[in-house]
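Researcher: First entry.
Model:
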Amino acid sequence: MNSILNQIKIKNQYLISVLSVGTVASLCLFIRDYLDYKIVGYLLLVVVSVLSMFLNILPLLLSAVLSALILNFLFIKPYYTLHISSAEDSLLLFLFFIIALVNAVLTHKIRRAEKVLQVKEVRINTMKLYNALLDSLSHELRTPISTIMGAIDTIQSKTISISEKNKENLYAEIEKASLRLNHQVENLLNMSRLESGVIEPKMDWCDLEELVYNVLDHLKDDLQFHKIVVKTDENLPLFKLDYGLMQQIIYNLVFNASQYTPKGAKIEIKVSYNADVDFEYNPDKLCPCVITITDDGIGFPEDEIDKVFDKFYRLQNSKTGGTGLGLSIVKGFVEAQHGKVTLENREEGGSVFTLSFQTLTMNTKEISNE
């Protein structure tokens, strides 16, 4: 199949070569009596130069040879013959032919060299990205695995006497390491789903306040040295969103805030909506839902804010570890639900992530009435 496609492409190139030279020559033929043949030669050289930008070498050589023959046959006297009576005209035609060939070959070689250089640059960048990802993954996966294995070895050891309290502490370490390992594996799987384009949100009624507290409960160990504030609008309705995707979004953002802000920093999660939507003119009951996650840490470097949602991107001065996947997954999951995520630094210090969705709402009173 590929060989057939390549043959079609080559045939098209030959056709383009012949038609381009023939079209220019035909136009010049109508005004041959008013044009010096040298001007026609220049025009045909331009055609060969343009064709050399995107044709392969053989169609290019055809255009150069065809241009020389047409120039001789139609525009150098005597017309309609390949015989040239003037030595000067013979020399000019020979030079035209050589220049056209050299121009075609050199331009083709330059194009090939540029392609080779581009391939090398892509390979170098890919290797850098691969090495960076491998380093971060090996650290992020090896650390919890080592913790789990070390704790299990200690518990199972017959030569070391362990108190029940120490055993409980080791079990707690195993649980914490397992959750961290699960988080990294989830991020890798989620990125794979995003890359393959198989994310299909399962929209259902979500209680975002309950969702936020569930996430905070899962992150209680990571947040034990932070001040957590949750604010929600009064009579917050249910929103039609994908509960699983929203849980992962909030989890990644809060986890990031816990890892990259100092101890004692405040993390505020606010869920609000526009209660003044006029449903008479909005029969679909679409309502703006806004979730903000704010911290009073050090914020983000201004020149890197536009890059933080890129896959595998990590801040230049960030601490070791991390895969650079968390925020790119947030962006992918938000956009999968037709939402928008933005990041800004606060004037008073810290940063704020804003998630906004135009989504269906249902007041809890409607449920009780039903």
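Researcher: Second entry.
Model:
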Amino acid sequence: MTQPFELTPELQQAVSGFFQRIPFNQLLGIELELLSPERVTMTLPMKDELIGNFMHGILHGGVIASLLDVTGGAMALIGAFERHQHLPAGERMARLSKLGTIDLRIDYLRPGRGRGFTASAVLLRSGNKVAVVRSELHNDEGILVAVGTGTYLCG
């Protein structure tokens, strides 16, 4: 019988470090807010370099997709940690190093207006090799801007 999954401080640091070492995440300004077995939350402050519609100051759709993908990937990684907790640490890390997006669907519901944005993700399913994650993006007023469903290779 497997132990209930606990996202220990060491695992939190491993997931956090994994995403903080990606230069693109740093370029965008993505900040990690919450890592838990149930949910991942990341934030993104608005800045001029991220505007897609300069006439209205709206967040670029590619940035929206990227933020939802990064948040979903972190959730998939946590799900994979749980699925592979029985493996030795080295083997588990070797499998998780293969994490990648297989498919990503974004529904843009409203223009990306705001001073900042929060993306959250929940795990829909985590299998031996593939995870499916649902993500949402809200602006700083709590308005839902976009939703995404991502499929990730994670083992």
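Model: Note on the second entry: The chain has a mean pLDDT of 89.
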